[in-house]
Amino acid sequence: MMALVVVLVVCIAQFVVASASPPNVLFLMTDQHRFDVLGAAGNVHAKTANLDQLAREGVRFRHAYSTTPTCTPARAALLTGQKPWNHGMLGYGAIATHYPVEMPATMQENGYVTHSIGKDHFGWNKTAGEHGGGINHGYMGTMLYDGLPETNENDDYDQWFKKFDPESDPMATGLTFNDYRGRAYVLPEYYHPTAWVGRHAVSWLNAYNSSQPFMLKVSFHRPHSPYDPPKRVMDLFDPDEMPQPCNGDGWDGRFALNFTGPPNPAIWCGNVSWEELKISRQAYYASVAFVDEWVGLIRAVLEERNLLDNTLILFTADHGDMLGDHYHYRKGYPYESSSHVPMILRWPSSMDAREVSIARGSVLDSVVELRDVFPTFVHASGHPIPKSIDGSSLLTLLSNQSHVNEEWREWIDLEHDICYNVTNHWNALTDGKIKYIFNAYWPSEQLFNLTADPTEMHDLAGDASYQSTLMLWRKRMVNQFEDEGRGPDWVQNGQLMKRVKGQLYSPNFPKKELFREWLGHTRLPSP
After folding, report:
1. What is the pTM of this model?
2. 3-state SS assignment for residue 320
3. Nearest Cα to 147, choosing from 223, 94, 214, 211?
4. Whole-number pLDDT of residue 8
5. Exposed/middle/buried for residue 335 (C-beta within 10 Å: 0-12, 13-18, 19+)
6. Cβ(292)–Cβ(31) under 8 Å?
7. What is the spatial distance between Cα 234 and Cα 437, in angstroms, rounded to a whole number?
8. Residue 260: its pLDDT value, please?
9. Phi–psi pair at 15, nearest 5 degrees
10. CA–CA dist 212, 464 (Å, integer)
11. Residues in the chain with pLDDT < 50?
């Protein structure tokens, strides 16, 4: 009997932060933010002083990924803490109106005041009230800017802009929401969505007076296109000093399409001139820098109100942006610039003595993913992690105990259904050192040694010296599909199958009537 008690105590200790006063949670997000546009990651061109400070005061995860790297499936992973097959979204589609277990709803049940500012991309109920409303999934309050055309949503930012300056056009810069081009914002900085989101976050924190802990999500839409930072920020960057795109040793040549005229602003692949791309990259880097300024202002409120030492801060992004790497643009690809995201965790000082044995400023090599955010917040709240969650609490990695790293996952699964073109349809696995990609349409395989070749210049799938490695990772994917019960369209007799047709949702996606209800509220634009 005593042994059973000891086992129970040990199990509970793995999931519960022993604190009489659970910390606040500040969840900071950007959209379409590459992992490497961060000073803390060694990028000398990035101007991210405030995010870098969070990394110095916390931990940065070197190998953080977005399993399904477009907006909605990435956010489904955050909502549910599940892998794609289990939450049901295998590509860019509509998030369900409700999941059995959801992060904001769970945190609310755990005693937190939950609020979301900025981008949710959860859908818009056009029948809710005079102007409609966002589907909240358990957030007690929302103030939304999803960055979608007004034909899809008339969100809080859109309504504010019309009321504040009905004669102006919020898209006056002339760029679109999936544009590869960059330009300085032409309206006063006050109107910029990044400033709008930042102001609301600062105001909310300044006004907060509840005795309950809060979970505040501040989700900036930028650096997602349009790449339109204020001119004063854009001028901080010299376009001629921007890092040039990474192009491979031949494997990516088929994407280097040459254009007879100006390219479509929403291209997904092609050979755009460096004269254009350096301006795009200048505007992109400046968009990140502008967000970083607001991260600093938000942090300043925590300091002024003596909240910083009892607030867990997690920063990440929903996916990256190719920015012309391998002649690709935007997101939805297995390559590092698309699927690899920044992730920083700063823990409150109240956890130092009990829960943490690594030094602040550490960089961890464990492979982590967006599904790990939900269990991390529940762990911090002092409550058991729901059994439906596939992810694991990042807080367990803040210990130097060897068994923690031994029990952590060895690799992560990545995938995306057809996106932009029928040929862009893939599954992948990576441990941050090796990446295996199965391109389902052709079918074909790719293999990259990320340790020796972090920009994926050399495809090793045809290299004789890597055949045993290729077979190992192929077998791991076969085992995954078989364990998940994906069926003969995916795997037969130990072989990965060619898939010309896509499958946007798995059988685990919530009830079809919920999906139809969502479609009645809003229509999805292109990712």
Report:
1. 0.93
2. coil
3. 223
4. 37
5. buried
6. no
7. 36
8. 76
9. -115, -15
10. 60
11. 1-19, 513-522
